[in-house]
Amino acid sequence: MKVDVFAxxxxxxxxxxxxxxxxxRAFKQHFCHWRRRQAQRVELTKxxxxxxxxxxxxxxxxxxxxxRADGIFCTCEDFNRQLSVWNHGYCKHCYAxxxxxxxxxxxxxxxxxxxxxxxxxxxxx
Length: 125
Fold this sequence. Notes:
Blueprint: E1 2-5, E2 9-13, E3 20-23, H1 24-39, E4 42-48, E5 51-56, E6 63-68, E7 71-74, H2 77-86, H3 92-101, H4 106-116
Antiparallel strand pairs: 1-2, 2-3, 4-5, 5-6, 6-7
């Protein structure tokens, strides 16, 4: 898949399909919904406070995640690819950690962290 981001639109080209333009907001909503669904197949292991290992059912790759006050960060390629396109990223592994911590969205998580003030460990709702 190839994605190009413009001011108000996103151009998406998927191999074997005709490229399409999406309104930026609609694309992000669809993408987040899709990632949340994929997160349901992610198995998490808590390594220590704020650190997790994630593996998608049926796959061998294991990724490490860190839950910090400014977000959740993952070592997977998808997360890093999103960083290069959007300047932030949220892969299925991040969504799995959010759900594990009891949050429905990144915004909800960040708001809770801001209200709790800076701490060593992420506070869980």
